[in-house]
Amino acid sequence: MFSLILLAWFAAPALVRRGFRAPRRLEQSSPAELGLAYREIRIPTARGKQLFGWLIPAPLSGPQPVVAALHGWGGNAEDMLPFAPLLHRAGLGVLLVDARNHGRSDSDTFSSMPRFAEDLQHALDWLIEQPEADPARLAILGHSVGAAACLLVASHRRGLAAVISIAAFVHPAEMMRQVMAVHHIPYWPIGRWVIGYVERTIGHRLDDIAPLYTLQAIHCPVLLVHGDRDRTVPVAAAETLYAHRYSDAVQLWVIPGVAHDSVEAIQAHGDRLLQFLNIAMNRDK
Question: What is the pTM (predicted TM-score) of this model?
Answer without folding.
Answer: 0.92
